[in-house]
Amino acid sequence: MRVNVHYISLVKSFTKTSQNEFDLTEGSSLKDVLQQVSDKYGKPFTVEVYDPERHQMKPTFVAMVNGIHMDQLKGIQTPLKDGDNIILMSLMTGG
């Protein structure tokens, strides 16, 4: 299955791109795609956005799946399906 990951605000500065597509196996969760993003972007992403060893987002960042905040779903254990849109963003941005 394939999911789309969009990077907004500060997250985009760590990935240097606004989006990627990732191929996952059936039954994958948000945790699995966060691991793939961590593997792809390395230390800048894992230091600031997601801790792959603890399996948790850093306090000032959040993920949304199809427009729904991850905490309203099953957190990083949220199951994904083909075509899902995931947004990774900071909680607040300056203006």
Summarize the structure.
With about 100 residues, the protein is of the alpha+beta class. It has two helices and seven strands, in the order E-H-E-H-E-E-E-E-E.
Describe the model.
Helices cover 26% and strands 29% of the residues. The model has no long low-confidence stretch (mean pLDDT 94). With 95 residues, the protein is α+β, with helices and mostly antiparallel strands. The protein has one domain: Beta-grasp domain (Ubiquitin-like (UB roll)).
Number of domains: 1
Architecture, according to CATH? Roll
Let me know the CATH homologous superfamily. Answer: Beta-grasp domain
Give the overall form.
globular
Strand segment count: 7
Secondary structure blueprint with pairings:
Layout: E1 2-7, H1 10-15, E2 19-23, H2 30-48, E3 50-51, E4 56-57, E5 61-65, E6 68-69, E7 85-90
Parallel strand pairs: 1-7
Antiparallel strand pairs: 1-2, 3-4, 5-6, 5-7
Keywords:
95 residues, alpha+beta, Ubiquitin-like (UB roll), 5-stranded mixed sheet, two-stranded antiparallel ribbon, 2 helices, 7 strands
